[in-house]
Amino acid sequence: MGVKYKVNEKFFEKWSYEMAYILGFIFADGSLEDASYLRGLYLRIHNTDYKIISKIKNALGSEHKIVRLPALNNNRKTRFILRIGSHKIFNDLSKFKLHPNKSLDLEMPAIPKKYFGSFLRGYFDGDGCVHIEKSRGTLRVIFTSGCKNFLDKLSALISENIKINLHRTLNSRRSYQLRYSQQDGLKILSYLYKNIKNKLYLIKKYRIYQNFIK
Q1: Cα separation of 2 and 52, whole Å?
Q2: Lowest-confidence pick of 31-35, 55-59, 69-73, 77-81
Q3: Tell me: the pLDDT tens digits for 85-121?
Q4: Dihedral (C-alpha) 132, 161, 116, 207: value to the nearest 10 degrees?
Q5: 14-60 tens-digit pLDDT
Q6: In angstroms, rounded to a whole number, what is the distance separating the alpha carbons of residues 44 and 151?
Q7: Residue 168, CB-side half-sphere exposure with 13 Å CA sphere
Q8: Residue 107, SS3 per DSSP
Q9: Distance of CA 36 to the CA centre of its chain
Q10: Are strands 79-85 and 138-145 parallel, antiparallel or unpaired?
């Protein structure tokens, strides 16, 4: 029998700003794993940024180890993985329409309006980017997913909550994208980082935004 590490198994029972952020992050850079051969159900969260994985681990009250997965070639970066075995967490996350192999048929959960900003920031930190075009010096905000329907619904929620025009989901070779130009992108970033103190966020993306608006 494997070692049983501590974790707050009730974390996803009730909405909070931290819970909404981590849920959004899982929708982007997480997965559920049904390892029936081990009689185990797991949550996996991964990213190239060790600090954000460590912060998520702490928020979950987890004592699990963060595993470093070295880059196999020059086209990839070192990744850090947090893997938590818990039937309770697995089942609670399943209620938000998460399931193993979710990438191509991701469904938008029902998110209380109060927590949408935290959910969106979590998803942005996992599968979004803020990009400064060098030639023009203009800013773009991009959200990516393997599922068009998910981005269609995300676009509608962004439009509803941030009061910007509805954006069409674009097919970008191996994935789908929502792309926002500078005016709408700055509105989104302002919404994501409002009252950010003591909340979860990926520092490097926040700094790009801060440096741009200085």
Answers
A1: 26
A2: 69-73
A3: 999 999 999 999 998 877 778 999 999 999 999 999 9
A4: 20
A5: 999 999 999 999 999 999 999 876 678 999 999 999 999 999 999 99
A6: 22
A7: 3
A8: coil
A9: 26
A10: unpaired
* pLDDT exceeds cutoff 90 at 194: yes
CA distances from 152 to 20, 91, 94, 145 (A): 20, 26, 21, 10
What's the DSSP call for residue 205? H
Which of 65, 73, 152, 148 lies closest to 105 in space, CA to CA? 148
Domain 17-94 sits in CATH at 3.10.28.10
- Within the chain, all domains assigned CATH 3.10.28.10 are found at 17-94, 114-213
Which residue type, as a one-letter code, is found at position 187? K
Would you state the structure tokens that stand for residue 24, as one six-digit string?
A: 């959004």
Domain 114-213: CATH class, spelled out: alpha beta
pLDDT at 1: 45
Calpha distance 93→50 (Å, rounded):
23
The C-alpha atoms of residue 207 and residue 44 are separated, in whole angstroms, by: 27
H helix runs in the chain, sequence order: 17-29, 50-59, 87-94, 116-127, 148-162, 182-192, 203-213
Query: Residue 30 half-sphere exposure, CB side, CA atoms within 13 Å?
Result: 29
Q: What is the pLDDT of residue 135?
A: 86
Q: Which residues of 65-79 are buried (b: 16+ CB within 10 A; e: fewer)?
A: ebeeeeeeeeeeeeb
